[in-house]
Structures are given as C-alpha cells and as structure tokens.
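Pipeline run #58 for the internal structure catalog. This entry was flagged by the ingest filter as a single-chain record with no existing model, so it goes straight to prediction. Upstream metadata was stripped on purpose; only the residue string is passed forward. Reviewer on rotation: M.T. Logging verbosity set to normal.
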Amino acid sequence: LHLSELYRAGSLGAPLDSASTHLGALAYAVPRMPAPLASLRSVLSEFRDRSGNVRVETWLDLGAGPATTLWAAACERPELTGATLVEPNREMAILAKQLLDGTSVSARVDTNWQAQMDPNVSNGSHDLVVAGYVLTELGAAERALIVENAWQACRHAVVVILPGSVSGFQVLLAVRRQLLELGATIIAPVSYTHLR
C-alpha cells in the first residue's frame, strides 16, 4: 500500500527508495512487472511493424529494474543475443539476476550488468536503447543526460516507456522534445515531428 500511495501522489522517485532491501525490491517488482511487460511487448511489436527489417541483436536498458524489458525483448525479438542492463539499485539488480538465473533467456542472451551508464559507451553501440520508468525518478538535468546518452548509444532506435500519469506525460513531452532536438525521428505513437 505504501508504494501505491507514493506512486499516486506523484512521488515517482520515492518507490525505489523502498526497494533498498531484497523484500522491498520484491514488493516493488511483483505488482509492477506485468503492466510494463505488456506495454513493452506491444511497443516492440509496433516497432517491428514500423521499422521493417531492423534487427535488434544488442540491447541497452537504462534503469533495468527487475529486467522487465529484457523479458519482453526475449519474447518479441528472437534475434537478441546481447543486453547491457543499467540498474543503480543493488537489490533490484540482484532480484533481476535471480529471476533470470537458469532461464532460456539467460541461456540465449549474454547480459552485462552495470550500476551506472558507462560514460565511454561508443556511438551506436546498441541496436535498441530503452529508457523506461526511471526517467520519472530523476531530476531534469540527470534525465537530460540519460536521454542524450541513450541517443548516442543507439544504432537504430530509442524506446521510451513511461507511466500513464500527468507527471509521466510531462516527462514524456520533455524527452520527446529533447530527442527531436538531437535529430531523432518519432515513429510512434505520434509520428509527426512538428508537434513540440
């Protein structure tokens, strides 16, 4: 209940503070994983339809949490062979690794876990970069840096998944504006780039 109250109050960064223990990470992940998993599977399906023959063999997840996006990618992108997952919350990263341990996903996809974005990541080093709910948990300056890093690291696309809330929408607009300024082309959900 505490996590739900914080989320509804718009304290989007606060729930991860509750994930400072293994039990807290589990309490955070269990009720939240299904909705982002379904959302990302839908997004990846739409991306495949709109991007043609783009292969996604390498993946960068900024704010991986319990590796929800990796599970979705493994379902939707059978060509995926490598994933870099950035998760600063130690307990959440431990939980994610435990959930993946011994699965067909871990057997098929080589994972590299990082506690923070590697500043030396080369341009275009990942086919697809995902920045999800973590963007709502950051201040504006840190968020802008993450978005810029995501854009530099992607070979084909940056996918942004945010919660359906007023504050999440405001973050989405800011991220969209920044990506357009960096030279991105928006293909979904609103493909026209003149909307700023």
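catalog note: The chain has a mean pLDDT of 85.
catalog note: The beta strands are 58-62, 82-86, 110-114, 126-131, 154-160.
status: ready for reviewer M.T.
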